[in-house]
From TrEMBL:
InterPro entries: Aldolase_TIM, NADH_flavin_oxidoreductase, OxRdtase_FMN_N. It comes from Alcanivorax dieselolei (strain DSM 16502 / CGMCC 1.3690 / MCCC 1A00001 / B-5) (Alloalcanivorax dieselolei). This is NADH:flavin oxidoreductase/NADH Oxidase, putative. The keyword Oxidoreductase applies. CDD domains: OYE_like_2_FMN (cd04733). Residues 15-343 form the NADH:flavin oxidoreductase/NADH oxidase N-terminal domain. Keywords: Flavoprotein, Oxidoreductase. GO terms for molecular function: FMN binding; oxidoreductase activity.
Length: 411
């Protein structure tokens, strides 16, 4: 039977997603400067839930306030914002939608402007010194510190469940801490967390176990994982497939496939080959390899833009869910219109200022999408045709140039 976008997807834990469209995580930067939940988040997720998408994954929520990835994102360590958290979850559950909280620790991708220092598996700086200027040289984590971070993932997941979120996702992609542990470039440890592939994946498996122990067997636990880091000597497909197999054995409910890091942003399509672009989504070839090995539900994210591309990826069996990020900023109700046949493609287009140096910098797109997210959160419609330069200047006015310069495109 051909799989179509409107079909429900049952997960190993017993929960069911109402259709095959998932909103991938996007850092909203809509919390307070002290990283607390705000009514703006509630409004944004209500809008998305009403837009027909079956699964909403939140932007990354930090598990430790001493390690922050970007300004004004939520930190979840305790119950201080319980009532607003509950409202956030309730809004995301409208119309039987699932809302999963993405949990993250940035590791060395913790900007200097927001953090006193940074920790990582090993004291390895960014290989690009221009990028490295915005980040501390990380200090290697001790084993008790690793155990503390593992515990924190479990604690934040339990708090999310208590507040009414219907699942959680580990951010295991894009060069953050989990992905740093997996990478032979960033992880040069000689203890049981490094040195070979099995040791490098110990951290992510411990994080999964800690979460599962706190949320129980009937609660969706997912991971966003890189197919590869696309860096010489980094995490590559062969090792990623082994991680997928190990996570599937442990009972993971859904694996979202992405790829790249700050230094090699493939998740945004940068550096993607023309032959890959013809298939629309960037990581489908890798997903097909995963499919041959495991039956765990998959969501492929990055590049989906047309109904035809989405249907063919589902029909080929390369993915079970279609992950969308930028299209759902430009059109928060795109899923509904794809499902009822009113839309066949989406209105995402490259964001340009016309100034080459600016256009090549990752901050360009992030400021544009950040502004649009803010508009939806204030009850206004996004402006798909808004210019790049004016958005950049507006964001600079609000957050200041210093923060903007270290702003990153993908969390
Ligand atoms: C503004 C913005 C913020 C993002 N924040 C996150 C994030 O918090 N966590 C994450 O896993 N990916 C994040 N991403 C990456 C997206 O989830 C997605 O992988 C990427 O945009 C490719 O999908 P798309 O082509 O459908 O946009 C972000 C992307 C954008 C544009």
């Amino acid at each position: 039977m051909t799989v179509t976008l409107d079909q429900p997807l049952p997960l190993p834990c017993g929960a069911t997603l109402k259709n095959r469209l998932g909103k991938s995580a996007m850092s909203e930067t809509l919390g307070t400067p002290g990283n607390r939940v705000t009514p703006r988040l509630v409004r944004l997720y209500r809008e998305w839930a009403r837009g027909g998408t079956g699964l909403l994954v939140t932007g990354n929520v930090m598990v430790d306030r001493r390690a922050i990835g970007e300004p004004c994102n939520v930190v979840l360590e305790n119950n201080r914002d319980k009532r607003l958290l509950e409202r956030w979850a309730l809004a995301g559950r409208e119309q039987n939608t699932h809302i999963w909280m993405q949990l993250n620790h940035p590791g060395k991708q913790a900007p200097k402007a927001l953090n006193r220092g940074a920790v990582a598996p090993s004291a390895v700086p960014f290989s690009d010194p221009k990028l490295g200027r915005f980040f501390h040289l990380p200090r290697a984590l001790t084993q008790p510190e690793i155990a503390d971070i593992v515990r924190r993932f479990g604690e934040s997941a339990a708090l999310a469940r208590d507040a009414g979120f219907t699942g959680v996702q580990i951010h295991g992609a894009h060069g953050y801490l989990v992905s740093q542990f997996l990478s032979p470039l960033s992880n040069q440890r000689e203890d049981e967390y490094g040195g070979n592939a099995e040791n490098r994946r110990r951290f992510v498996l411990e994080v999964y176990d800690a979460i599962r122990a706190r949320v129980g067997d009937d609660f969706p636990v997912s991971i966003k994982l890189n197919s590869a880091d696309f860096q010489q000597g980094g995490f590559e497909e062969g090792e990623s497939l082994q991680v997928v197999e190990a996570l599937a054995r442990q009972g993971m409910d859904l694996i979202e496939i992405s790829g790249g890091t700050y230094e090699s942003p493939r998740m945004a399509g940068q550096g993607v080959k023309e032959s890959t672009r013809r298939r629309e989504a960037y990581f489908l070839d890798y997903a097909e390899q995963v499919r041959q090995r495991v039956t765990v539900p998959l969501m492929v994210t990055g590049g989906f833009r047309t109904l035809e591309g989405m249907n063919s990826a589902l029909a080929d069996g390369a993915t079970d869910m279609v992950g969308l990020a930028r299209p759902l900023v430009v059109e928060p109700d795109l899923s509904r219109r794809l499902l009822d046949g009113r839309a066949r493609d989406c209105r995402v287009k490259p964001i340009r200022t016309g100034v080459r140096m600016v256009d090549e910098a990752a901050m360009m797109e992030v400021s544009w999408y950040t502004l649009q997210l803010g508009r939806i959160a204030r009850g206004k419609a996004p402006l798909p045709d808004a210019g790049g330069l004016s958005s950049l200047l507006k964001v600079a006015g609000v957050v200041g140039w210093r923060r903007l310069r270290m702003g990153r495109l993908r969390a």
